[in-house]
Amino acid sequence: MQQYLQPDKMSTRRQFQSKKKTHRTNPLLCSPSTLILPLGLPGNPPPPSSQTPSTAHIESTARPLSKLGHPVVILISSDGFRFGYQFKTATPNIGRLIANGTEAEHGLIPVFPTLTFPNHYSIVTGLYPAYHGIINNRFADPHTGEIFTMGSHEPKWWLVPFEERVDTVLGYFDLPSSEIPIFMTLYFEDPDHQGHQVGPDDPEITDAVARIDRMIGRLIQGLEKRGVFDDVTIIMVGDHGMVGTCDKKLIFLEDLAPWIEIPGDWVQSHTPLLAIRPPPGVSPSDVVAKMNEGLKSGKVDNGKNLRVFLKEELPSRLHYVASDRIPPIIGLVEEGFKVEQKRSKRQECGGAHGYDNAFFSMRTIFIGHGPEFARGQKIPSFENVQIYNLVTSILKIQGAPNNGTQSFPQSILLSSP
């Protein structure tokens, strides 16, 4: 089965025009023998040769299961866990997974845009957003006019305490071995919530990271109590990083008025991903040309920190063109800057993500611990679309076609005994 979908061979309309075709059937998500627990979560990849880790002084053969009758993967996502947060405070439980498992030494690379919903869908499908269809946290389908929103992702909706989420996962290990799901997920909305409010360098982040570490400890202790910790594969990731923002780093679309008016109803998202869909009869090329003329004029505050493209002219490494849902005009904002429609007296300093995934601040974490992950292994950074094939390989199930590299799991997992 073809495991890597070439962007130019995908039919955008076929994949995304109707609701029925938007959400593809995916064996990882839909197999009767698997389970995802939604406990809180409603550039081509480098060639395998560049992602092959150093294997000096580490084991080469996977460890056999001692108690469970089949492989089990727990995929943990800590929203907005920027790479480096693990060094902000003592994290003995995360550190234990790292010391006895495999870590992306310089972090996990999210897909573009570096936003929550596009990245979580990429993690569990192995597809870039243009192919799984969730191209932003909020967007309109151009064919139906329907709006996708992540409104229910606001912290006020999260009613299940972190401890209860962990305990729910642990409860499945009290079932007979044959009934234990092979795949479970665990989601924490921190430290993203704090990052947006105070930025990545505030003591609130340190407290949030310490809390996440306690939850990892709770999970480890529960698995150990049941005698299955060494049998269970734990993959801990984040969906994106975080960077500080402040009022002095603002770009206002109204400042472009001498060159072109950009009405608010043209703009599907302002920042950090500027997405514009002009009405029929307005040439996207003309809009891009006039916007860039103004931005480069030196007369627009911070204008040099916004570059506007026709989506077809975006850097190919972003993989952000092959969907009708992606508006025709995309603006790339420099790290830490924000775009707003018009000037206001509102004061705001905090944090943001969604920027170009080439920025190191957008990186997050990858830790793999379990029978097929070598202890103490460090591997190069990779894009999160590779995780899907990694999970299906561990579970020994056939995955759906995706944008990951078929050989990637073999480059980082231990071989079978």
UniProtKB/TrEMBL annotation:
GO molecular function, one term: hydrolase activity
One annotated Gene Ontology cellular component of this protein: vacuole
Region: Disordered, residue numbers: 1-26, 40-62
Listed InterPro entries: Alkaline_phosphatase_core_sf, Phosphodiest/P_Trfase
PANTHER family tied to this protein: BIS(5'-ADENOSYL)-TRIPHOSPHATASE (PTHR10151:SF120), ECTONUCLEOTIDE PYROPHOSPHATASE/PHOSPHODIESTERASE (PTHR10151)
Name recorded for this polypeptide: Uncharacterized protein
Organism, as annotated: Vitis rotundifolia (Muscadine grape)
